[in-house]
């Protein structure tokens, strides 16, 4: 039986240990909290101190950086990037190749389309169609 973890060296030369998540085999860094019911697909990374709630789906190749908080039922499409300290409200949907900036906040139930960029520190809320609401 193969090992259930992978060691990866970061840009600073530090070695980080990632375990393979039981649902999807994505890589979860030591210190990240991922609910057992969440799905983290192969090729996805969840960095230290990130928190992922129940029912979340993190797609193939997505990256959830350190200190990000992902609410219950969130859908993160393949190759999306959630920046450090970002917060995604419950039941939001994040599109393919979308980038959520550092410390950005996406409101509960928001729909962020494919290939979008939410800037660092930006706060965004949308309706069910993805139309932005006034802040």
TrEMBL record:
Q: Which domain of life is it from?
A: Bacteria
Q: Which Gene3D superfamilies match?
A: Hexapeptide repeat proteins
Gene Ontology terms, MF aspect: transferase activity
Which InterPro entries does the entry link to? Hexapep (IPR001451), LpxD (IPR007691), Trimer_LpxA-like_sf (IPR011004)
What are the protein's UniProt keywords?
A: Acyltransferase, Lipid A biosynthesis, Lipid biosynthesis, Lipid metabolism, Transferase
Pfam families recorded: Hexapep
Q: What start and end residues bound the annotated signal peptide? A: none
Protein's UniProt name? Transferase
């Amino acid at each position: 039986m193969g090992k259930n973890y992978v060691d990866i060296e970061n840009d600073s030369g530090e070695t980080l240990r990632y375990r393979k998540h039981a649902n999807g085999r994505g890589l979860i860094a030591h210190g990240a909290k991922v609910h057992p019911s969440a799905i983290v697909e192969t090729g996805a990374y969840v960095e230290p101190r990130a928190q992922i709630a129940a029912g979340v789906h993190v797609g193939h190749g997505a990256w959830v950086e350190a200190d990000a908080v992902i609410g219950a039922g969130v859908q993160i499409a393949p190759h999306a990037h959630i920046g450090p300290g970002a917060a995604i409200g419950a039941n939001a949907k994040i599109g393919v190749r979308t980038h959520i900036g550092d410390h950005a906040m996406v409101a509960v139930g928001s729909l962020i389309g494919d290939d979008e960029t939410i800037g660092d520190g930006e706060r965004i809320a949308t309706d069910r169609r993805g139309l932005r609401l006034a802040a």
